[in-house]
Specification:
288 residues; mainly alpha; membrane; Threonine/homoserine efflux transporter RhtA; EamA_dom
Length: 288
């Protein structure tokens, strides 16, 4: 029963997060602004939940809190780089590229935990790399996106940060109360987004009311619902099943990008998208 609830929780989380790329694009805000405000506006709802958990289950260990702080910094890097990629390669394709985490997380598990690499990894990784090249528009005369090459670079760097974030979020949530570390993830991400946004990615501390409204929607769908559910549910599932369920995020983003934003990837970019998703799915279900 607990596993079934976790599956539905992860499914809900993936679909909730899938809308964030489109909503951020509609908001028209810079990466620093979007990353800072989406985390900050989630805290008033998350902090009471953390205090309730603390009274009920006690405080997490110092190691869990340190892991959460590092995960928060990586999450900020993921948000900043990915938001930059949205304007360059599109909401849908940028989200597909970021989900190369299905390849990168096993590499982290091998490097850190000495988890065995399977034959499927070495078969699927080149297929997904070919998908990246197609998605970047290297085979097109007029690929979709304002700057698909740099968009791909930023999305791949975001994938590295995203992979580290997921690895630490799942690892830190095993055998520990999940909400308190997650709130620390959001606090660390808020501070890191504030610092990096002011330095590089553009930060507006007084965005217009319409933009703030869109970012509040992202905070609700992603930070309060989506990623909190991932923090709670992912430790209860195998890494393989969790990875498969998170693939609903890029699929939803591609569909919403086409319907809401009118994004029309080129045929080669769609081929690249399909290669990445097919390789990621095969890799996830084959990791045993």
């Amino acid at each position: 029963m607990e596993r079934t609830a976790a599956v539905w929780g992860m499914t809900t989380a993936a679909l909730a997060v899938s809308a964030s790329a489109v909503v951020i694009s509609v908001s028209g805000t810079a990466p620093g602004t979007a990353s800072f405000w989406r985390c900050l506006m989630a805290l008033p709802a998350l902090v009471p939940a953390a205090l309730w958990e603390r009274r009920r289950s006690g405080a997490p260990s110092r190691r869990a809190l340190l892991t959460a702080a590092v995960a928060g910094v990586l999450f900020a890097g993921d948000m900043l780089l990915w938001t930059q990629a949205i304007s360059e390669v599109g909401a849908g394709l940028s989200t597909v590229l970021v989900n190369l985490q299905v390849v990168l997380v096993p590499v982290l598990a091998w490097l850190v935990d000495r988890e065995r690499m399977t034959r499927s990894f070495f078969v699927c990784a080149p297929v997904m790399l070919a998908g990246v090249l197609c998605t970047a528009g290297l085979l097109d005369r007029a690929p979709a996106g304002a700057d698909p090459v740099w968009g791909t670079v930023h999305a791949l760097l975001a994938a590295l940060c995203y992979s580290g974030f997921l690895f630490l979020l799942r690892r830190g949530g095993q055998g520990a109360p999940p909400v308190q570390p997650y709130v620390l993830v959001m606090v660390a991400a808020t501070v890191a987004s504030l610092a990096a946004g002011a330095w590089w990615y553009g930060l507006d501390l007084t965005p217009a009311a319409p933009a703030l409204g869109w970012l509040a929607l992202v905070a609700l769908s992603s930070q309060i619902v989506g990623w909190l559910l991932v923090a709670v549910c992912s430790p209860k599932l195998s890494s393989q099943l969790g990875a498969v369920l998170l693939l609903l995020t890029p699929i939803g983003s591609v569909v919403l990008g086409a319907v809401v934003l009118g994004e029309h990837p080129s045929p080669w970019q769609l081929v690249g998208c399909a290669l990445i998703l097919a390789g990621a799915f095969r890799l996830a279900v084959a990791r045993k």
